[in-house]
Amino acid sequence: MKNSFLVICFIVCCDTIYAQQKQLKVHTINICSVTYNKGVSQDFTRMFSLNDFIKIAPFSDLLKSNYEDFNQYNYGSHWTNSVCLSAGFQFANKQKTAYRNTPLLRLGINYHRSNDYSSFLDFETENTYEVLASFQYSVSVWFDSIYNKHASMEYSYDQLLLDGAFLLRTNPNKRFSFYTGLGLTAGSSVNTTIGISYGESKHTEVSFNDGSGYYPQRNYDDIYSNEADESFKLRNNKSIGAYIPIAIDYRLGLKKKYWKMIHLFFEARGGINNLCIKQLNPITGFRFDRSAGLKVEW
């Protein structure tokens, strides 16, 4: 009877110890923070040529015109506004008794607004003829008849990207901390459109010369003008990139629980971005981002 009692006590003790150890175990991965940040992005990449626009929109009637003698100027607002919402995840230690401060896994969504590639084409001819207005004062009047043709093209889109980063950071329990790592982005464009406009105009510029000086007096009133516009919605493009972030994190409080949870941070990242448009070869460029935000970490 005594032996049976001792066995039962041993089993109960073992079960209690096992239960306590089990309670100390933590999950392999745990969500520990959420962040919201806004910033600007700058892309350094090649501009679109006229042939690129023709490949993207072969159905355009305006792009079927002959632009062989036109001067081409390429530009684009490769500055975009970005918004990001993400969550941070900690990993458990080998014993699964606590979570490590580093490394940290960050997963989120980025939205970039107003990416565009633009081109402007211009062709101008000028015919000049002179009229002697006064024999007594030798006043000459010059008439310049100017004929201008121009066209513009704009490929624009917003961008929605999935963002994942593996971060190494210093002690986040201090007032200031720093982190860096490696991140990947992948996603698609939204609201992808192309706009094309074409115009012709003719006007006359008048100038005078009385022998002592040249006095231009310009008249830009159009004698003749013709304008046409086209706009098309296109298939969304794809994008993939990689980046290295460098950031500083400021913790608002060290004592009170509420303020300890709130962080302000500034992050800069540089990396490569690959834009895939179905009709063109992949376009690879460099992207530089700067953003500031708010993080709540528990």
What can you see in these coordinates?
The protein has 298 residues and is mainly β. It has a single domain (27-297), classed as Porin. Helices cover 12% and strands 65% of the residues. An 8-stranded antiparallel beta barrel has the order 1-3-4-5-6-9-10-11. 19% of the residues are buried.
Key features of this structure:
3 helices, mainly beta, 8-stranded antiparallel barrel, 298 residues, Porin
CATH topology: Porin
Number of strands: 11
Query: DSSP helix count?
Result: 3
The Rg value, from CA coordinates, equals: 33 Å
Give the percentage of residues in beta strands. Answer: over 45%
- Average pLDDT confidence is 85
Distance between the first and last residues' Cα: 53 Å
Low-confidence stretches: 17-21
Strand order of the largest sheet: 1-3-4-5-6-9-10-11
Overall spatial form? elongated
Secondary structure: helix percent? 10-25%
H/E topology pattern: HEHEEEEEEEEHEE
Q: Which CATH class applies here?
A: Mainly Beta
Structural class: mainly beta
Number of domains: 1
Ordered list of secondary-structure elements with their pairings:
Elements: H1 2-24, E1 29-44, H2 50-56, E2 71-75, E3 79-92, E4 99-134, E5 139-169, E6 176-209, E7 214-217, E8 224-233, E9 238-251, H3 257-261, E10 262-276, E11 283-297
Antiparallel strand pairs: 1-3, 1-11, 2-4, 3-4, 4-5, 5-6, 6-7, 6-8, 6-9, 9-10, 10-11
